[in-house]
Amino acid sequence: MTSERDALKAQFLRDAGFGDARRELLSGDASTRQYERLYRADGSQFIFMDQPPAVESVVCPPGATEAERVALGYNAAARLAAGSVAAFVATAAWLRDHGLSAPQVLAHDVDAGLAVLEDLGDGLYASLIERGAAERTLYEAAVDAQVAMQRETPPDVLRAGDAAWPLLSYDTLALKVATDTFLEYWPKFAGLAPFDEAAIAEWDALWAPVWVAGEAGASVFTHRDYHAQNLLWLPERNGVARVGMLDFQDALKAHPGWDLLHLLQDARRDVSPELEAAMLDRFLAASPHLDRHAFLSEYRALAASNAARILGRVFARQALLGRRQYEAFMPRTWRYLERNLTDPAMADLKAWFDRHVPVEARR
After folding, report:
1. CB-based contacts of 27: which residues, under 8 Å, 6+ apart?
2. pTM of the predicted model, to two decimals?
3. For the domain 2-361, what is the CATH code?
4. pLDDT digits (tens, 9 = 90+) for 117-160
């Protein structure tokens, strides 16, 4: 199978005019995608994306019932794109059409799960800040890009040539199944007994208003994974185009705080409470249509839900699979979660965690 895939990739590159390019494998993350950098003899560089289409579970069909989505699996229930090249191509086109910087797609084959992309370089926010770049300047630009993105009316379907992808809503079911992964994976990782029926019923009741508010506010185009490892600084461009975007294929219509909470409560790097507060002020000053108190309350609640998802689905699950490097991110994510739970409106959820997940099991 590997040799067949390799042959398919080589033929795709030849057909796209990149058959003679030197290929260099790039390090990846926990996804099923693989990236290579292509070097042509003239010195130009490109990115080759390989997403085998049969690796992940089925995505959510438009109009599917909740029961149908659950039966199809996690990707359908959570409304994830499963790495779809169609989703990537169509989303990239929408972003570029609205003055934002996503890679130009030079060649693609939706059915094969292959694409050649513009190379936006190596100026990842996380790497630049680690090397001493001005953190606040970068974050201000990222917030401004959010404001610009959210001013656009999101379509029902994203289209680019033969690639079309429905822009669904981050609804109650998607939020619930994602947050509930904490119940599944954290006890296994931390050595706790499984949560009993009463604890799970209380969990559902306490989170339900958060998920409902998230669905009710699902009104803006949302990158969905908007953080310092997926943003690139492009200083040669102007305005919001200076913020290059990657890994946006899971885009949805979501609450206007969703991308911000990923950016400002970044599980992979420390964002100070002071910077978070300043960036939220900047966003709200540019978004006078939002009620400040309601927005911040929903932002903190959704951020807590997302932290629980990351601790369960992303970090604990990966650690249980032997990828122990994810354990290094857990204490930071717990700090974000605990900070959100200090909101008086979340006192009952804080009490739930205090009863069922003792301090020594938060690591």
Report:
1. none
2. 0.94
3. 3.90.1200.10
4. 999 999 999 999 999 999 999 999 999 999 999 999 999 999 99
